[in-house]
Design brief:
Chains A, B, C, D: Keywords: DNA-binding. The structure is a homotetramer. The first copy, chain A, is mainly alpha-helical and about 230 residues long. Chain A is built from 12 helices and no strands. Chain D binds a DNA duplex (21 and 21 nucleotides) through helix 3.
DNA sequence: AATGAATGAGCTTTCATTCAT
DNA sequence: AATGAATGAAAGCTCATTCAT
């Protein structure tokens, strides 16, 4: 009972953790909460478990974040903020259109691959029908430059006569995202059912080429015969 | 206390529900549980809530399914069994290769579109790293004919000189699935961020064409220049 | 769900077990119940667990025995009936008094040693303050010949001038029982606290001699100096 | 619903009980739990019942003790701690050997007589094959001075030529304990079967003398003729 | 600003037993 | 005489949150 936990698993007692460093403490909580929610979902994540892996106590989580839901939202906002910041700093206008598209795909592919936590948080939020995000001014106000970036590349490509297809930037973005996201988000069930390993280096390399080829050939190809169904 | 609910919201009173119809009762539970878990996830789903929407009582859920986890697994097995049964009955070998591919894509697109519950369950199970599925003999033993179907179509296409690309069936399946799945699984966050409506009929039609075009042009196109990264 | 158990562990379905043999079935149930209650106590014993290890179903337990309590009582009555039957068949009047006493001690010692189930059931019933036994006419009416047997031996011993002490048969019986019973009933805590093994053969032999010596020297010794306290 | 009990008999309403007195509250719980488990066993004892007789709520039992099993273990540890503390303070080395032995017997006899709860807890723990105690560092580390005390007395007795028998301290302790323990632990079945009252004052006095006489005559007597069996 | 102690409400699961033929 | 199916009631435990300073 003197290990900082009450017998029922509630973390209670003082820890040596940094005092008088509100920002440090908040960041600490946020990091741990990111792991917890990303790993176990919102409902599955435990405030106690977060507190236990933190330098502070559970009480401080409530002090700084107010509620489990608000903490979860802060985690979500941080994750979205990070990717937006990077996306907004991509500079693809110096490259010729096809190369720019491939660069964007490769960036997306690699980022998703390396940020499984983010992928999982987005999946989790979709399970919740984005109900938490809807309340977030922060995420609402995030600038999504990637669509503009894509639009400009497509325009340049069309102007140069390289891209013929009439593809909308947002649809293209979705197609790229879908592939890169799915590889990570659904790897567990996919691996199990198809006896694959989507994490294997050679599979990763093959997939990276394939999505690039598919997008480029879509953009360069003749509009296909279309029948509705 | 005569509202049929005990103080904790647990329904206790008898219901008129069908007696002596074990299969009907089990199916009833399964249907409601599918909604509950699909909507709220495994951790977020409540056995009490399932029972309340059922003709039976909570006790019967445990009588028939043993535990919350086993019930969830039964839901998952049913969902996978349904799609596999349909997939295995697709008959695409009568169509010429390109048409067969487009048919498969259209089927996949429509099925995912119409079975959001299934999509959500798969997402949820991936959040759990497929841990429940790993224990399921039922899902392990499911025959996944779709890969063979694709392989035969690709082979015919190559024999006829229509498909030139060296694309593996399983990778192609993943690409198709990724797009069709993502549209549904991630629609909530996508709609919110990009101010889109992925459910809108015209968007749906456009996307359906686009994924078809992308796959076909990938299969028909010259192997693209490939650079590793 | 076709292993004769419902998913929640309730044994339900038919077993191949002997039909039309009520006595055999009852005996089967009784044997299994003896193990269960003896091992886990009355509250800890499970009707389901008993049924599962039986040739019949749980329903039959209620059919034949009426309730968990009645089944437990039947087990208790059987256990007491067995030892009484044997005790009543001891023939110690052919032996000279000291030898007869030693024989009785050895019989008691060995019987308790070999019937741990009985020991445990008696302990369990004492935990329940003999409340079940109080309702049992069967146990009430059991003839306890051992006290008479002891009385006759003591009388013979006094008549022969061998036993001088004024010890009552029932007290002597208690002293013998206490030692033999405790060795078995309390062996788990005793072993743990004193780092002993009360089951070890040499310890058993030593103890058997010791209790014999103690009783005999008590019976043969001069009445000791007695001070009340 | 304003009787302070929810539908399932669980007490939910606030009690006036002492706040901000963790130690007092824990002691309160421990006392009530001792009664409950001692009276009904581990499986038969109810956390709800304990809570109901306490100044606090069921929730606090889990807050302070973690689980039913841990609470039970705390009860056991307290009971063992109490007797060991007293045993370790016995001072018998000032008395001549025979008197010291008689004093020890009388102390044991009286303590067991007066601490039926302890006796019952030990019986209960033996029914559980000491499985809880095995996990208890507290009990494992308890110093059992009584064996050393006995050893020293026996040695003095042999040095003075008073005790001739070659009896081991631990065996002697077991014999004394067996008698004193059994009188209390088995009184309910014993009384019922032999129509005795082991609690009656005259019976108690007679038994106290008898166990003393038996032990002393064993220690002073000639080694008896020993035959194996 | 910071926090130790406490907790109401509800969760999953189990248990002996009876319904209905 | 025998039994498959069903179940009310309650048990142990957990969770996010607030009290009180």
């Amino acid at each position: 009972m003197d290990d900082g936990m009450s017998a029922d698993g509630t973390s209670t007692t003082k820890k040596p953790g940094r005092k008088n460093d509100p920002e440090g403490t908040k960041q600490d909580i946020l990091d741990v909460a990111t792991e917890e929610f990303s790993s176990l979902g919102f409902a599955g994540g435990r405030v106690d478990a977060i507190a236990a892996r933190t330098r502070t106590t559970k009480r401080m989580i409530y002090y700084y974040f107010g509620s489990k839901e608000d903490l979860y939202l802060a985690v979500l906002e941080k994750a979205y903020g990070d990717i937006r910041a990077i996306e907004n700093n991509l500079n693809l206008q110096d490259q010729e259109p096809e190369r720019a598209i491939r660069s964007l795909i490769e960036f997306t592919f690699d980022y998703q691959e390396q940020h499984e936590d983010f992928i999982r948080l987005v999946s989790i939020e979709n399970i919740h029908r984005a109900q938490h995000m809807k309340d977030s001014k922060v995420i609402r106000n995030l600038n999504v430059a990637v669509i503009d970036t894509l639009a400009k590349i497509l325009e340049r490509g069309r102007a140069e006569g390289v891209f013929r297809a009439d593809i909308q930037p947002i649809d293209l973005h979705m197609m790229i995202s879908a592939f890169c996201f799915f590889r990570v988000s659904n790897r567990h069930t996919f691996n199990l059912i198809f006896h694959q390993d989507l994490s294997a280096p050679d599979t990763r390399a093959r997939h990276k080429r394939m999505i690039g080829d598919a997008i480029i050939s879509l953009l360069k190809g003749e509009p296909q015969h279309r029948q509705d169904s």
